[in-house]
Amino acid sequence: MEQFMDRVRAYADALGIHPSTVVQRAARIGGAKWAKWEAGEGSPTLRTADRILKYMEDNPPRADEGKAA
């Protein structure tokens, strides 16, 4: 689980967004889920984790993303 969370955090950081935004965009679930996962109050289903990982794979950060203009 921690490896998955680290991957989402790194992806979000590369885009300059919050991990909860990645969850919202990728899995179409509320960003509050991320907070629960962070707090250890739950975890994503395998299907949800796969959707998020696929989204991140299909939408890699561009070199200019996450940087202030």
Q: Fraction of residues in helices? A: 55-70%
Biggest pleated sheet: none
Radius of gyration: 12 Å
Instruction: Give the N-terminus to C-terminus distance in angstroms.
Output: 34 Å
**Helix/strand/pairing category:** mainly alpha
Q: Return the average pLDDT rounded to an integer.
A: 92
Summarize the topology.
Layout: H1 2-15, H2 19-27, H3 32-38, H4 46-58
Helix pairs in contact: 1-2, 1-4, 2-4
Describe this structure in words.
The protein is mainly α. It is 62% helix and 0% strand. The protein has four helices and no strands. It has helices at residues 2-15, 19-27, 32-38, 46-58. Helix 1 packs across helix 2, helix 1 packs parallel to helix 4 and helix 2 crosses helix 4. The radius of gyration is 12 Å and the shape is globular. The mean pLDDT is 92.
What attributes characterize this protein structure?
69 residues
Quick rundown:
With about 70 residues, the protein is mainly α. The protein is built from four helices and no strands.
